[in-house]
């Protein structure tokens, strides 16, 4: 297994645990807070391992430059939407870029786009690492979709955007829900059973999150259906050119040797 695959697997395991622990672990509020901050300390270390491993495997200088361009584009789009009523155009470059350039690129694009845009929009807080992990999951999903071409690919990506937008909302509600507090029918119950907490979360998500998640899903799918074809064509052209240049460089190097 490649180092990049191991890094992605490690991030995936930690991310899954960080989002879903309230459903399985009974703990006091003190332990909950400790685990919360421990995760925030651990996440940068996990990202550093992932970025280091991925960089040494496949991503070269040209890919890093293109990654920077897409992150800047995503950051600019986030300032336009700022998450109002689920209007988040940032997912357009994340999903399309991840689709074209593969899993390693997708992981970096998802995490760093959310990080950079949070710095610009003032969205830095304890929720940011969760947003970065959730964005990485969305990007990795787009990169892992079965290969297809033409308009079919655009329809597949639009359908995926709907599913991913709803899933992103579930993940972000999962990270916020335990800290909501209060003794209500939708609050997290420390030490409660899996069934009880799952029921409370579903009610919480349905009554608070769907009003954001459904507009996000519709809007993202609409952007992909209307703008996806020219953007994908441009990204694929850049990708083919970079691959050609890389192959030519490797051939010249082999001739010298």
UniProtKB/TrEMBL annotation:
The keyword Manganese does not apply. InterPro entries: ECF_substrate-spec_UCP037395 (IPR017196). It comes from freshwater metagenome. The chain crosses the membrane at residues 6-25, 37-55, 61-80, 101-121, 152-171, 217-235. The keyword Transmembrane helix applies. This is Unannotated protein. Keywords: Membrane, Transmembrane, Transmembrane helix.
């Amino acid at each position: 297994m490649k180092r990049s695959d191991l890094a992605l697997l490690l991030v995936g395991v930690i991310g899954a645990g960080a989002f879903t622990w309230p459903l399985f672990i009974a703990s006091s509020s003190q332990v909950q807070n400790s685990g919360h901050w421990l995760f925030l300390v651990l996440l940068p270390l996990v990202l550093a391992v992932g970025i280091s491993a991925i960089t040494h495997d496949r991503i070269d200088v040209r890919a890093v430059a293109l990654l920077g361009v897409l992150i800047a584009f995503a950051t600019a789009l986030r300032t336009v939407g700022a998450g109002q009523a689920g209007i988040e155009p940032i997912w357009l470059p994340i999903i399309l870029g991840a689709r074209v350039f593969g899993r390693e690129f997708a992981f970096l694009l998802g995490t760093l786009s959310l990080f950079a845009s949070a710095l610009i929009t003032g969205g830095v807080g304890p929720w940011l690492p969760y947003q970065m992990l959730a964005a990485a999951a969305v990007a990795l999903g787009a990169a892992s979709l079965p290969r297809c071409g033409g308009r079919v690919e655009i329809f597949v990506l639009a359908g995926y955007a709907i599913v991913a937008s709803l899933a992103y909302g579930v993940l972000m509600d999962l990270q916020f829900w335990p800290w909501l507090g209060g003794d209500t029918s939708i609050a997290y119950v420390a030490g409660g059973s899996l069934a009880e907490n799952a029921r409370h979360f579903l009610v919480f998500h349905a009554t608070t999150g769907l009003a954001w998640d459904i507009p996000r899903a519709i809007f993202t799918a609409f952007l992909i259906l209307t703008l996806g074809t020219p953007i994908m064509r441009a990204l694929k052209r850049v990708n083919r050119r970079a691959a050609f240049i890389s192959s030519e460089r490797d051939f010249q190097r082999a001739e010298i040797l």
